[in-house]
């Protein structure tokens, strides 16, 4: 220090007094409204003391080391979750309505202003992603279209979330969001891939008996994180869903036949502009309902089912081949009937026989 250069060599600098006090310190990892305290060393003005004792150095204080914030125990809150819905369109609102009705705290973000709709559902709406993430939700639910999922996830300020936040998606394909989460999210975040295989139209009278597929891709083994995942799945159990645990790869292979095929047939029939008639059969009514159910979903969804499920390409080729096979069978049979009409059993032409 500069002062020591002008003092006698036997002069020592000592603090006149020191004491410890507690000062609140906040960091972005600590939930809003909760503060931690750490000891801070306070020193008064230095005094000069002469003596023959060895010099005592005035050591600068070391940087403070903050403890990792402890996650909030869900059991202390009666398993009520704070759920942030990213993408508050038709499907996001459909899910949020049930979340809120069960007593969970629901936050929502969307580029479109749905504040009035959110208010009517008892949901807190945010038009800024940073503000929403700073609320430290337990669960962040990705409810965007398949085509925009990557851009939305990349835009999220995940550094403002707790590092143990549970990420959930409800996309209609599963391998794509699974790989996206694993690629873009730090390893501290939990990942649950889900697919409610119903929507606002098919689930408007309740969810009882409707399938809910899920894959626990990455869930921490601590009690609170296991309990949080269970609490989220329990939302759908309470509504009577048929819970199906299935890998993302198996889901996509199965869903290509179940979902993509259904949407394809419905949209092909829509191209025919089918109309209701006074003599509708039950089968025809089923086709009309299929057109209504599939076409009520956006074409963006249908396009996403094709682009982001590798099994869909093979399926549509099989469908095209099946149609060609059916046409060949029909025309071959028609050709056979014509031949029977043109030639009698003796092989003579029916025209010659008439002469």
UniProtKB/TrEMBL annotation:
Family matches, as InterPro entries: 6-PGluconate_DH-like_C_sf, NAD(P)-bd_dom_sf, P5C_Rdtase_cat_N, Prephen_DH, TYRAAT1/2, TYRAAT2_C
Q: Which GO terms describe its biological process?
A: tyrosine biosynthetic process
A single Pfam family it belongs to is F420_oxidored
- Alphabetized GO MF terms: arogenate dehydrogenase (NADP+) activity; prephenate dehydrogenase (NAD+) activity; prephenate dehydrogenase (NADP+) activity
Prephenate/arogenate dehydrogenase domain residues are 81-355
Q: Which UniProt keywords apply?
A: Oxidoreductase
- This chain's protein is named Prephenate/arogenate dehydrogenase domain-containing protein
> Which organism does this record belong to?
Musa balbisiana (Banana)
Lineage start: Eukaryota, Viridiplantae, Streptophyta, Embryophyta, Tracheophyta
């Amino acid at each position: 220090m500069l002062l020591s250069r002008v003092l006698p060599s036997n002069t020592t600098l000592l603090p006149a007094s020191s004491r410890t006090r507690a000062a609140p310190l906040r960091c972005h990892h600590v939930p809003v409204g909760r503060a931690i305290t750490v000891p801070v060393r306070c020193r008064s003005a230095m005094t000069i003391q002469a003596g023959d004792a060895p010099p005592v150095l005035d050591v600068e204080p070391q940087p403070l080391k903050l403890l990792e914030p402890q996650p909030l125990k869900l059991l202390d809150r009666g398993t009520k979750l704070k759920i942030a819905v990213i993408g508050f369109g038709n499907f996001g609102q459909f899910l949020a309505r049930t979340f809120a009705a069960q007593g969970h705290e629901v936050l929502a973000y969307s580029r479109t202003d749905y504040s009035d709709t959110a208010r009517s559902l008892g949901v807190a709406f945010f038009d800024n992603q940073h503000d929403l993430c700073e609320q430290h939700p337990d669960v962040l639910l990705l409810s965007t279209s398949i085509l925009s999922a990557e851009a939305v996830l990349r835009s999220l300020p995940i550094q403002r979330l707790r590092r143990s936040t549970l990420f959930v998606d409800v996309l209609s394909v599963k391998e794509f969001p699974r790989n996206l989460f694993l690629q873009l999210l730090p390893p501290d975040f939990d990942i649950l891939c889900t697919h409610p295989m119903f929507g606002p139209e098919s689930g408007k009278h309740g969810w009882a008996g409707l399938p809910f597929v899920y894959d626990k891709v990455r869930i921490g083994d601590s009690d609170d994180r296991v309990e949080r995942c269970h609490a989220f799945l329990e939302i759908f159990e309470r509504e009577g869903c048929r819970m199906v645990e299935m890998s993302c790869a198996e889901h996509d292979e199965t869903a290509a036949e179940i979902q993509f095929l259904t949407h394809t047939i419905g949209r092909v029939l829509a191209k025919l502009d089918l109309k209701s008639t006074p003599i509708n059969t039950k089968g025809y009514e089923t086709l009309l309902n299929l057109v209504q159910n599939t076409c009520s979903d956006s074409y963006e969804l249908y396009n996403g089912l094709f682009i982001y499920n590798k099994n869909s390409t093979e399926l549509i080729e099989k469908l095209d081949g099946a149609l060609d096979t059916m046409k060949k069978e029909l025309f071959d049979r028609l050709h056979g009937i014509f031949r029977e009409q043109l030639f009698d059993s003796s092989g003579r032409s029916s025209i010659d026989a008439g002469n």
